[in-house]
Amino acid sequence: MSDLSSRLDTLLAAPAATAPSYAADGRLYFLCDAGGSAQVWELPADGGPARPRSAHRDAVAFVAGSPADGGAVFGRDQAGDERVQLHALPPDGDARALTSDPRTIHGWGAFSPDGRFVACTANDRDPAHTDPCVIELANGRMTRLLEVQGPHELPAWHPDGRAVILSTAPESFRSDLLQVLLEGRQAAPLTLADGAWRHMNPRFRKDGSGFWLLCDRERDFLGVAFQEATGEAPRFLFTPEADVEKLEVSPDQTRLAVVVNEGGFSRLYLLDVAGEVLERSTHPAGVITKITWRPDGGAVAFDLARPTHPGTLWLHEAGAAEARRIFAAAEAPEGLRDWATVSFPTFDGRDLPAFLALPAGEPPEGGWPVLVWVHGGPAAQALPNWRPDLQMILSLGIAVLVPNVRGSTGYGRAYAALDDREKRPDSVRDLAAAHAWLAAQDRFDEARIGIMGQSYGGWMVLSAVTEQPQLWAAGIDYYGIARWKTFFEKTGPWRIGHRAAEYGDPVRDAALLETLSPLHKADRIICPMLVAQGMTDPRVPPHESQQIVEAMRHRNVPVEYMTFADEGHGFLKRDNRRAVYLGVGNFLARHLVG
Fold first, then answer.
1. Parallel, antiparallel or unpaired: strands 340-345 and 351-357
2. Strand pairing partners for 150?
3. What is the model's pLDDT at position 420?
4. What is the pTM of this model?
5. What does the pLDDT look like over 64-121, one tens digit per residue?
6. Which segments of 369-495 does DSSP mark as H helices, in order?
7. In a domain, 198, yes or no
8. Of 33, 108, 107, 42, which Cα lies nearest the Cα of 70?
């Protein structure tokens, strides 16, 4: 379909700019995929034009500006295998590798206050455990501070530079903070580990007398808190009835920049250090993934993506009436369809949140076909983000419903717990409720409703087409889990403990996990399916997709299988995205549009 191919090329030609991070000299680093995959770019402090600073086929995962000069550190893996290696980028010139062990995952942490060291985690000692380490930038020498059990992150340094702050993450809704001394290499708890609460994003006073953080202790939502001393309960400062997702302290420590998740839409606020709102930034409705203070403390830069525009960079200057856009790699194509917030009733009387996007014009006779898109996670949230694949699908005359079924984040801890363990089938029942809500409206065609999801969302798709086979006209599964037993046997060992806390223990809950495995019910699938898989995926390895494809082929159920040798858990390279999106578009044109 040449028209579809042309529309897709137009959409993919609109690159995104994301993840801004200021360096000490005022230059702004960020990621931009104008060259086909996300690479490091910079906006010079003197206002000159943006320029690329890296050029690789594989995407860069993050970039962080130095607090000491105009340099940065970034990380990238090989072909999506998630074994991230760190690179030091000087203010001018080429990057040099800080790590070069392709077997090891290096998790980014933070710069030391003087910019001479960086903290990271590494699982070279044991793939299942991420130890805290420090790297000296001048020579690349790495020092392991401690041997720990399980997954950890390094979100900050103590302001005196003599300790790093270690964050535990044994499960999705629990994180505790510890302080690890560089000398003596001893760990001591900073937060009270007396419950399954989240203590996140610590930002210290310069004198070390306490720190701001995000916390949900005794609350349904994350709020801004301050902790005066080690081992004390944090004191809440700012507690909207929504999750506060980002927190950064101004260089002079007189203001806090925070991002609040308001029904999936991000909103930037400036607070004083006591938590009082000073400014609510005026900016377009969309999704913010990163905020960063300008070194002079006069402004906050942030990225912003919307359903009708890829990521762009914005600046909110203190006291300004509204934020202004400071970089866009390209303007968005014309005629894109926006998302509206909706809700639909489900089996237990709840109204579930969702986004709905409609094709242009009036519905055809009999109504529009619909694609229900299910997010992964499950501890995640579908957001009103830039999605060229969904815009392509809308251009085919297919409506799109994006639900946040029970178990999604962004609506409180209690909502996120509604699908835990033996309650997991209830989230699949929510998909049947979404179908019923669509089918009850004349503008949609009940007989042409398909379903699509990725990762855990792929498991949701496979569960829907096996538990509710009569409902779905077509299914698309991106690297979904077909059988929990084989998933736990083959997923990256560093993920097993954390995933077991969410899904169930692979030994103790083996019987439950077998019941929840769509592979055992594959004989119920009657709709055509498209399955797509990155072959270096360490999270949901290819075996999961291969099993469900073989089961369908054995029964002669129509199935298309697309594989990508140089992609992991997601399709990040533009040529690969073009191939898989075009495959999806042609598949839906045949099976939903007809």
1. antiparallel
2. none
3. 85
4. 0.94
5. 999 999 999 999 998 888 899 999 999 999 999 999 999 999 999 999 999 999 999 9
6. 388-395, 413-416, 424-439, 456-467, 484-490
7. no
8. 42
- Considering only CA atoms, which of 454, 437, 417 is closest in space to residue 353? 437
Two structure tokens written together for 377: 């996670």
User: Is 393 a domain residue?
Assistant: yes
Residue 357 has pLDDT above 70, yes or no: yes
Q: For residue 496, is pLDDT > 70? A: no
Given a contact cutoff of 8 angstroms between Cβ atoms, the answer to whether 567 and 580 are in contact is no
Residue 465 C-alpha from the chain's centroid: 26
Number of domains in the chain: 1
Both tokens of 470, joined, read: 């009569």
pLDDT of 498: 63
Q: CA–CA separation, 101 vs 266, rounded Å?
A: 37
Quick one: how many helices (H) and strands (E) in the chain?
10, 36
End-to-end CA distance of the chain: 13
Sign of the Cα pseudo-torsion (471, 473, 476, 480, in order): positive
* Secondary structure class of 459 (helix, strand, coil): helix
User: Does 169 have pLDDT greater than 90?
Assistant: no
Its domain, for residue 372, covers 340-593
Q: Give domain status of residue 575, yes or no.
A: yes
SS3 of residue 382 by DSSP:
coil
User: Are 397 and 368 in contact, with CB atoms under 8 Å apart?
Assistant: yes
In this structure, is residue 39 part of a structural domain?
A: no
Residue 427, pLDDT above cutoff 80: yes
Element (H, E) at 584: helix 574-588
Query: Tens digits of per-residue pLDDT, 12-40?
Result: 999 999 999 999 999 999 999 999 999 99
Average pLDDT, the chain: 94
The H-assigned helical ranges of 470-568 are 484-490, 496-503, 510-515, 542-554
CATH number at residue 357: 3.40.50.1820
Report whether 90 contacts 68 (CB < 8 A). Answer: no
Q: How far apart are CA 560 and CA 554, in angstroms?
A: 13
Q: What pLDDT is attached to residue 494?
A: 65
Distance CA 450, CA 306 (A): 24
- How far apart are alpha carbons 420 and 407 in whole angstroms? 7
Kind and range of the H or E run holding 60:
strand 60-65
Instruction: Give the model's pLDDT for residue 389.
Output: 96
- For residues 180 and 168, what is the distance between their CA atoms, to the nearest angstrom? 12
